[in-house]
Design goal:
- The chain is α+β, with helices and mostly antiparallel strands.
- The chain contains 3 helices and 8 strands.
- It has 2 domains: 80 residues; 93 residues.
- The protein has a 4-stranded antiparallel beta sheet, with no helix packed on it. A 4-stranded antiparallel beta sheet has the order 5-6-7-8, with no helix packed on it.
- Keywords: Membrane, Transmembrane, Transmembrane helix.
Length: 187
């Protein structure tokens, strides 16, 4: 019973970390969805072992089953509705850096025309990190230039010639500020 309690605490900690997502993982919704679901199953299992009385156990199991169905539907909807990011071009980071900038076309269900974004990325596979740096407006042009000004600064020049600079954290991929232009016709 003690081992099951420790397992519940460990999975709850992993689930909390996945939901918090301090490292901006590209597949964070998948990690969070699975981790929270597994933690809920272990918590339910532990509660049904600790609680006495068949009625209370049945209520706990029923409530947990319904909660897992709702959670699964929310995770599925989040993943399904999230826009696709088609990489158009990648710009490598500074020498000896794992960072890169990706110009992506954001693919949504809406038919507003192409929307472009610049993303800071690091890593490969399931542990790929991804953070937005610049998010364009619908029907706007892709940026004219993206580059690393130095190891901790990135610069995006829009098609209209406006320059946007952001500082980046190479470990967590935190970006400050994330630029979202308000107009297509100017800065």
């Amino acid at each position: 019973m003690k081992a099951l309690g420790i397992l519940v605490l460990l999975t709850a900690g992993v689930a909390a970390l996945a939901v918090w997502d301090p490292f901006h993982l590209l597949v964070a919704p998948w990690f969070a969805g699975i981790a929270v679901g597994v933690a809920a199953v272990f918590l339910t299992w532990w509660l049904t072992r600790v609680v006495r009385g068949k009625l209370l156990r049945g209520l706990i199991t029923t409530f947990a089953g319904l909660a897992l169905l709702v959670w699964g539907a929310l995770v599925w909807a989040t993943i399904t509705i999230s826009p696709g990011l088609a990489v158009l071009e990648e710009v490598p980071g500074p020498p000896d850096s794992r960072l890169r900038l990706a110009i992506v076309e954001v693919q949504t269900w809406a038919v507003d025309g192409p929307t472009y974004s610049v993303r800071l990325r690091a890593g490969e596979g399931l542990l790929t990190q991804d953070s937005p740096v610049w998010v364009g407006l619908g029907e706007g042009a892709r940026p004219a230039e993206v580059r690393f000004a130095d190891g901790g600064t990135v610069e995006v020049v829009s098609s209209g010639g406006c320059g946007y600079r952001s500082t980046v954290n190479a470990v967590t991929l935190a970006v400050d500020p994330v630029h979202r232009p308000l107009r297509l016709d100017g800065c």
